[in-house]
Amino acid sequence: MPGKRKNNPSGYLLLCGLVFVSCQVARTTYDITEETVKATYKVSKFTAKSAFGAGKLIYHVGGFAFKVVAAPLSWPLTRQEIETIDGLPPKEAIRRKKVKKSPYVVKGRRYVPMSVAQARNYRETGIASWYGFETYHQKDGHMTANGEAFDPNGLNAAHKYLPLPTFVKVTNLENRRSIILRVNDRGPFVDGRIIDLSAGAARKLGFYDKGTAKVRVETFAGEG
Q1: CA angle 180, 187, 41 (to 5 degrees)
Q2: I want to staple 144 with a disulfide (CB 3.0 to 4.6 A). Which of 106, 125, 151, 185 is the partner?
Q3: What is the C-alpha separation between 74 and 107, in angstroms, rounded?
Q4: Where are the beta strands (DSSP E) in the chain?
């Protein structure tokens, strides 16, 4: 991050590639233990525009950075097995922004996500896996179930029932590592698994090579 903005705006664009045009800060709390211990994180959200004109959002949550970019509708879904969202073809639902809490169908099975109120108290222990290996070897990018560009090296995750997007804290109970992730996709559609992480998140939690780990997932911040 640059310390001071230079006097020449165009030179600054060439140097950094980003112009921050707005910023809003909120504070949120969540339980970090079964006792009533609280941790407070500052959530900063910047609307940015690159030198090439493509807009993105940049979040800073608890020391972790999240770059959110809308994917072109021509990109394939990471979860191509999703048949409908809110009764519509997936990309049409994404175009109409009808994905946050909308029911969706995968292989004939209908999934009904939680409400935002229900998600605030979500806490679950179970098996996590990671996904997206195939995206490393394809020319174009992939789109998550809420229309974001999927970043296999980013701090993102897929969940069957949480509203999209939702921020969660994920703790690997096998080594006690914890990170904050942005849930922006659907899955995993494998019995016995509660969350799918990007490869980058799996590396940070220390189970990329193993493939799965026992984790605790708890929500603490959502986006309106």
Answers
A1: 15
A2: 185
A3: 22
A4: 18-31, 38-50, 55-61, 64-68, 82-85, 104-106, 109-111, 123-130, 156-158, 166-172, 178-185, 193-197, 212-222
* Residue 48 placed within a domain: yes
Residue 202 structure tokens: 């799996």
Read off the tokens for 166. 């939702």
| Domain residue limits at 16 | 11-68
Distance CA 143, CA 151 (A): 9
Number of domains in the chain: 2
- DSSP reduced 3-state for 3: coil
Q: Judge if pTM exceeds 0.85.
A: no
Residue type, 159: H
Q: pLDDT by residue (tens digit) across 37-94?
A: 223 334 444 444 433 234 578 878 878 888 889 999 999 999 999 999 999 999 999 9
